[in-house]
Amino acid sequence: MKVGFNMGVDPVDYKQAEVDANDLQFAAQMGTTHVVLQSYANAGIVPGDERWEYDDLLQLRQRVEDAGLVLEALENVPLKFYDQVMLGGPDRDRQIENMVYTVRNIARAGIPIFGYHWMPTLVGRTLLTTKIRAGAQVTAFDLEEASKRPLLMDRRYTEDEMWENLEHWIKIIIPVAEEEGIRTGIHPCDPPVAELQGIPQLFRSFEAYKRLIGIVESPSNCIEFCQGTFSEMEDAKGDGIYEMIEYFGEREKILYVHFRNVSETVPNFQEEFINTGHVDMYRAMESYKKIGFEGMFVDDHVPIVVGDSPWGHRGRAFANGYIQALMDVVDR
Q: Which CATH number covers residue 49?
């Protein structure tokens, strides 16, 4: 198992955050060996209005390696790169062509994993300033409040058409990824509810992910296992979260793990410190060990504590240290 940092996004409002040499040095100082770099909303860690170029991706990887780290994964492209793919819009085919170009360049630049999502609504929260232990600040979700928000587009979309759009994409991009030797995986919808702003949230259940991996049987058709979001699912109650880890892990479908905790499952929850949510994180780590998982664990959505930076250096250091300690315990 490998330990890494999740870099490039603000932990409170999920806006793009810069990743500079000091941040990479900090990650190395904390004892991590790998990183995942994020591009979110309509900003990117790589320049480009519609697609990413090989030289820019290669320079990014080299910048990470200069800090003594491995760039294990790129998570997300700017939403504007493929929103029409998700929604079946008139620009879908052109966006798919650009995404094929981008995925090939990611692979050829020596970056082995591409994680993405199927959330035109992006991450949905109803509160950004919820207070937990000693005033630490986290985000929270309330389904009743979220249901009052206006439609994202000019109509409601159906589950069937969202699945049809996804299957069209999967059947094109997975053969490309397999040909290039790269693995791809979809992040669950966060929050994992039936609908947000008129958009069905497909990846909200155990069964949805079983359906995903069956669309195209390929080692490149995988899951970006955000344990925090899986822990928000109704399916996570009881032993559910550990069963999902073992089911997908045994099938080698977990690319890497956002190892975070939350207070409860939907319809209402809040972020927590890594060791204060409803999931037994020691038992979760044991589950990964049991199935022989060799991938990367990273922090995610950490609480903002007193004196912290916008990126959350202090909160991330706490989470990352806890991850390393749990890895040491289960290894011994």
A: 3.20.20.150
